Each structure stands twice: as C-alpha cells, then as structure tokens.
Amino acid sequence: MSYNPFYYKWDFVKRRKLYFVISGVLLLIGILSVVIRGFNLGVDFSSGTRVDVLIGKPFVDEEVINISKEIGLTPDSVRSAGEGASTTAVLRYKGTITKEQFAELSQAYQAKYGEGTTLSESSISSEIGKELAKKAVYSVLIASIGIIIYITIRFEYRFAIAAVAALLHDVVMMVGFFSLFQIEIDTTFIVALLTIVGYSINDTIVTFDRIRENMKRMKMKTIEDLEELVNASIRQTLVRSINTVLTVLIASTALMIFGGEGIRIFSLALTVGLVFGVYSSIFIASQLWLVWKEQDFKKKKVRPALQND
Amino acid sequence: MVKWNRVLIFFLIVILMGVLMGTTTQYILKRITLGLDLKGGFEILYQVVPENGQKVTKDLLTQTSQVLDRRISALGVAEPKIDIEGQDRIRVQLAGVTDQTAARRMLATEANLTFRNEAGEILLKGADLKEGSAKVVFDEMGRPLVTIKLNDAKKFEELTRQYFNRPIAIYLDENMITNPVVRSVITNGEATISQGTVEEAKELAGLLNAGALPVTLNELSSNSVGASLGQLAMKKAIFAGYIATAIIFLFMILVYRLPGVIAVITLVTYIYLTLLFMVLIGATLTLPGIAAFILGVGMAVDANIITYERIKDEIRSGKTLLSSFRAGSRRSFWTIFDANLTTVIAGAVLFIFGTSAIKGFAVILILGIVISMITAVGLSRLLLNLIVRSNWLNKPFYYGVKESEISEL
After folding, report:
1. CATH code of the domain containing A161
2. Which end of chain A, N or C, is less packed with Cβ atoms under 10 Å?
3. What are the residues whose beta carbons fall under 8 Å from the beta carbon of A55, sequence distance 6 or more?
4. Distance CA A234, CA A211 (A)
5. Are residues A151 and A289 in the same domain?
6. Is A301 in the same domain as A160?
7. Residues A89-122: pLDDT tens digits?
8. Torsion of CA A32, A38, A39, A44, to 10 degrees
C-alpha cells in the first residue's frame, strides 16, 4: 500500500484557464471599484479639521457625536484623550469648518456639558498619510524587484516573475476588496499590505522548490509530463501550503475577533490577504509558470536549434 | 532498544529551558518599552521651518531636538521620545501627558525673549540671557516672579540708567508678558518678570532655561491616546494572542503529534527569545508591534510544518525513522531559507522606506524570522534528533503517519 490521499486525484492544472479567468474577473472588479468608487479613506489620508472638546469628565461617544450631528456636522471619529479634569473628546471632521459652525458647536457643547467646556480647532493635513501611501507603493515595487532578483538567482527568472505576479495579484485583491466593500483604510492597512507582500511569497516558494526538485528526477519529454510535474508538486506540497497559512490565519483571525478596534482593520486586511495568498500560490503561481514553460517547450520542439536551457 | 540517556538529556534540556524562561519572563516583560498607543499619551509631528530661508541641516535638527528635550524635561515628562524623521521633521512623543494644550504651547513656542523700549526697538535679546539662569522666586506678597540673569551686567546697568522712570517691556515672541517701569538702576544684572500663577512662572522659567528654538515648528499631525484606552487595546491584543497561541499549539500537537509537541516547545522558546531581544535592542512595543508579534508566532511554526511534512514524506517512502529525519531536515532547510529570505527582503524594504510605526513593525518582523530560524530549525532539530536517536516513541503513528500509507521499498 502507499500514500494516496483524496486530493492526489485532483488535477490542479487542467482547469488553469478557469482559474485565470476567475482571478482576472476578480482583479477587474477590484480595479474598476478602485477607479469608480475609490477608497473609504480614514483620517490618516484625508485632510480635515480636528476639534478638541475639553469636557472635564467622562462622556459617552454617541452623545458627543449626536450633538455635532444636530448642527449638521458629522464627525469621522471621536476619541477620548486625557483623564479627570482634562478629559477631552477629540473629534475629526473631513473638510473645513466655518467660524459660524464652530461657534454653534461651542454653544451646543457648553449647553450640554456646562460653561467650562472649551473647544479648540486645528486643521489636519493629509500629507503624512499620503506620503505613507506613496512610500508603500514604492516599497511594494522595490520589494518585488528584490524578490525577483533573489528568486532568479536561486531558481530561474520564470519562477521569479510568476511568484511576483502572484504576489501583486494578492496585493491588488486586497486593495480591491477594501475598495469594493468600502472598508475604511488607515495606515495599519498599509502595514498589513506590506506584511502580505513579505509573507504570501512563502508558499509559492515552497511549491516552486518542489517543482525544481521534481524536475531533476522526472524526464520532461511532452507537455503532459510538464503538467504532471506541476500537478505532482502542488499535491505534494498542498498540506504544507495549507497548514502554514492556517497557523497564520489562526493568529490573524484571533486578532480580528478579539484584538480590539485598533487592529481590526489591520487583521481583516491580513486575513483577506492570506486567503488570496494561499489561493494564488496553489492555483495561480505554478500555473503561470507552467503556461510560460509550455510556450518555451513548444518553441524548442519547433526550433531545436534555438534551445538555450 | 531504547536509549534512555538520550531521553534523559531531552528532558533535562526542556526542563532547564523551562526553569530559565519561567524565572526570567516577568523580569523581561517589565522591561519592555511600551509605545504611546499602549501606554497612553500624546504625539506631535512637526515640520521644521528655519527662519529667513535658511536650509534645514542635520545640526539644526539636532539643536532643535535638544531644545525640545530640555523643554519637555521642564514639563516633567519621563522618557520623552524625540525622533528626527526624514529631512525636516521632528516627532515628539510624550507618554502620560494629559494636558495637550499646555504641551503644545510649551513645545512650539519659539521662546525668543526680548526687552523692548516704547518704540518697539529691541534692547536685549534671548542671547543676552545667562544660560539656565531663570528661576522662580516669590516676592514679599508671596506672588511668583521669574528672575533672570544677564550675561553683561554692565550693559543692563546702562540700559536701566538710560530708561530710568520709563518702561521696558519684556516680550516672549510677539507677546508682551510684562511692561514694568524702571524704578532703580540695576547693577547686579538681574531682571524679574512678574507672573500670575506659580504654574505660569514655572512654565516661563522652563522655557527660558531650555533656550529659544532656532526654527519655527509647524504641526503636521498629532495623536493622542488616553492611558486607559491604550491599556484596554493592549489587554485585548494580548488576549487575542493567548487564543491564537493556544489554538496553534493544539493544532500542531493534533496534526504532528510528537514533532508537534517539540514545535510547541520551540514556539514557547521563540516567544521568549523575541521578547528578550526586544528588550536588548530597546525596541518599543506598539499596537502594530503586538500584531506583528502574534503573527510571528503563526509564521514561526511554518518552518516546523515544512520540516515535519517533509519527514512524513520520507517515512511514507519507506525509509527508517532516522534516515527520514535526516533527509527531511536536510531537504527542508533550503526551502525554509529561501522562503524566509524573501520575507526578510520585504521587511528590509519596509524598514528603509517606512515611517516610525512601520519601522517598528519591520524590526519585529525581521527579528521574528531570524529567531524562528534558530528555534524552529535549530532547536527543533536538536530536540527531535535526541528523541529519534533514542528509539523511544518510534512508531510512525507518533509522527502522524499511518502504517498503511508507507510504501514498500
């Protein structure tokens, strides 16, 4: 008897066109959403006005929000700062607030929390958030180039390009997901995005490593051989790919459910990225490599003189 | 035959590590620097704008930071963090500060003290003050006063003679703080500025002693977290960490059995070492940092999983346990190395291009990978090696392989 689990019957390459179509459609939806709907940018990325209301005693967030809403100003966020006599509600608004509106706000809060309630207003610049986003884009590109160079040295350029394509696939999926569902993006989202850039490549490498190893043992005569090579490699590393992501998913899901408000966006982004990451390393990365390799294979068959590897 | 001496060594190592970690963890935990978002406090990012079109130089930034540091000390904040960021920015983090308005005023005032005559002509400048000479004293009525000493007592004497019975106003930047009439010729080079409250007097003395800012500071962004809010965020994140770790432990033991138990031991070591190194390199733990840390626990088992799956493959192919262990460890090493190195590349890019929060995250990410190479590869191999060679618990079952899956050679 030998090891023959149920998934050894699965063919991971036969329907590769289907996977490409699924990913293509999802990517298109994501990109269209980004273009049409844009993002729900958090205060880190949008300029606006910040109003500090010195209340001097504990307050209920909803109450503070409602008072502002009655004047027609809906704050983006309310945060508590300070303690005891210096308890302050920090409100953030998108856009600017006129002098009249500010006076109205002051009156409303003083009516509610007493004469001693003082308000101060300052404008916030979106420069920092924008700069961070810009840096993130550069970081993703530079990291991609670094990874391509490394994999090209350790493996070959086809693996490198396929791995990075799968990586960018995951990044665009994450961005698209957050745009489509209009989930607020803050700076932690960018951190999550960059984490996925670093992590999602792992499983792809594990599978590629197995393809490379199997390639040494199997004779590649026909395209079918090549397909079988990729299939066998994916099957052999499937449990590994899933289990490694599973442990990280356990961590990110626990953070999402129990970790509190401050890291919810971060852990949600990670979870989404991890799911797309494992999908792309099983269904996209190796298949991209296969398609490319097959083309070279066909060329070689036709013109053996041009063979170069 | 079971070689019990190896089993004994295994348990000795595990118990020794357990004792070491058990006794020192509390000590390490206490020494971890918590970031503002966990401890509560106030953070401002300033853009440095030099006066009259000067260029922002490294020296100017350092000088500004020093002035800010002295001012913060006057505020009585322990361990302020002042970082120079990029070309022209300074980030000030004040843990535990609740009075933001006072902090803001104290930080961004240029604090140029000037003595002016009625026509607004500047008679004396901040540079004429003796460094660190400002003091709070009280007059006969118990009212607070700030006294300052001037470098050149002669010059001041002459001024007081010249402006006898006329007012000399004292300005802090463009605000007149007092406008006394000179009633006597002052020969000892000491001037007094009357103040309303003791707090105001202390603040002024602090500002004057810290020196004037050589630049204008524009506030780019600010952030404040209540201490209780930070504590709550930390509690929640740590709770999530416990749950995640418990489930991962359970998962590893159920799926990988004996090696799974070893993975748990190496994971605990991983957690311990990461905390230890965070203290050693003085990294600040922030909320994203905790997240990176918990995530790191999930990632650290990857190397274990890759190795154990490989060993399972080898056992299934019909090899003996020992040669399966050897081949599995050897073959999985480069896979793990390649996979981790790509993550390090990404982490390094984050570190180079990121802002302070992202840098902190990148440091923990890279640290986690390096430590996981030590624990999940090194330690795990050492322990597994002892068990495999002891012949104890050597059934394939203990390695998560069914007898029926093993092919005949």
Report:
1. 1.20.1640.10
2. C
3. A87, A88, A89, A109, A113, A117
4. 8
5. yes
6. yes
7. 888 887 777 778 888 888 888 888 887 787 777 6
8. 140
B28-70 pLDDT, tens per residue?
Answer: 989 888 877 787 777 888 888 887 777 888 888 888 888 888 8
Residues A147 and A107 in one domain: no
pTM summary value: 0.76
CB contact under 8 A, B309 and A127: no
Which chain A residues contact residue B274 at CB under 8 A?
Answer: none
Measured between beta carbons, which residues in chain B are less than 8 angstroms from residue A253?
244
- Of A81, A6, A25, A233, whose CA–CA distance to B313 is shortest? A233
SS3 content of chain B, % helix, strand, coil (to 5): 60, 15, 20
Name every chain B residue with its beta carbon within 8 A of the beta carbon of A261: 233
Into how many domains does chain A fold? Answer: 2
CA–CA separation, A41 vs A124, rounded Å?
A: 14
Q: What's the first-to-final CA gap in chain B, in angstroms?
A: 24
The single-letter code of the amino acid at A273 is G
Measured between CA atoms, the residue of chain B closest to residue A44 is: B221
Nearest chain B CA: its distance from A243 CA (Å): 7
Is there a contact between A29 and A179 (Cβ–Cβ < 8 Å)? Answer: no
The residue from A85, A101, A124 where one domain ends is: A124
Written out in words, the top-level CATH class of the domain with range B41-224 is alpha beta
Query: Which residues of chain A lie closer than 8 angstroms to B406, CB-CB?
Result: 1-3
Of B45, B291, B309, Cβ closest to residue A266:
B291
Based on the domain organization, do A35 and A62 belong to the same domain?
no
Last residue of a domain, which of A124, A151, A170? A124
**Touching B: A residues 245-274, CB under 8 Å:** 246-255, 257-263, 266-267, 270
- Contact pairs from chain A to chain B, CB under 8 Å: 219
Residue A1 lies in a domain: no
CATH code for B4-37+226-405?
A: 1.20.1640.10
CATH code for position A86: 3.30.70.260
Report d(CA A183, CA A195) in Å as an integer: 19
Write out chain B residues lying below 8 Å of A193, CB-based: none
Q: Is A106 on the interface with B (CB under 8 A)?
A: no
Identify the sign of the CA torsion A197, A199, A200, A202: positive
CA distance B181 to B169: 8
* A203 and A69 together in one domain: no
Closest-approach residue (CA) in chain B for A236: B313
